[in-house]
């Protein structure tokens, strides 16, 4: 049988087809914390690498033992032209055969070669991770002026509106959408109005603080074609200071009317 060399066996091993590595497995998550939405994308990609181990090629030669031939009985001997053993040749010479010749011994057969090939496939996993934090656009309070007289009212307008924020995670676009769902107005720490527009009455002199609190409904997606997934509610705030000056408006004077006695001396009198 054919004997394989080590080089030939290595060439045959590397020609063996190996399965293609599996597609990357992705993990997506969204966390709402501290006024922001954090999107995280993890991708693990396994890969198989064939690594041929040591090849052991062994060939064993098994010699062929010549069979034992019994001498024929010397009865009517015929001189052969060729013989295959020394004993047969000696017998032919003893019988007076001069033309008998000895054939060359046959080549000893070679036992089948034993080839052992072991292939080790090493599997490695690479993990890729990317994340981004998304916050709403800053909000502001639109007011025409900041100084007023005592008793005047200030008209306040919020600039909060729906908007999207985008980033790229592991080469793919990701989006977070912020939609205002509630707006609260506070004057000196006390709530006085809701909605995008409010009117604040400045009834006392001094500096007054107006605060706006906006609740955003945050939704996210990891591509530009999938629907948005609700992540949670994020609250943002803004504040502005308003100054009121001048005396308070005069109190209304009571209309005079007739009484039975002086009210200061007789407070229980009629019409006092």
CATH topology of the largest domain: Immunoglobulin-like
What is the total number of structural domains?
3
Q: What is the CATH architecture annotation of the largest domain?
A: Sandwich
Major sheet: size, sense and barrel closure?
Answer: 6 strands, mixed
- CATH class division of the largest domain: Mainly Beta
Q: Element order, helices and strands?
A: HEEEEHEEEEEEEEEEEE
What percentage of the residues does DSSP assign to strands (E)? Answer: over 45%
Cα radius of gyration in angstroms = 53 Å
Low-confidence stretches: 6-24, 53-60
What is the residue-mean pLDDT, rounded to a whole number? 78
The count of DSSP E runs of length 2 or more, i.e. the number of strands, is 16
Q: Kindly, what is the distance between the CA atoms of the first and last residues, rounded to a whole number of angstroms? A: 138 Å
Shape: rod-shaped
Based on secondary structure, the structural category is: mainly beta
Helix content: under 10%
Number of helices: 2
Looking at CATH, the homologous superfamily of the largest domain is: Immunoglobulins
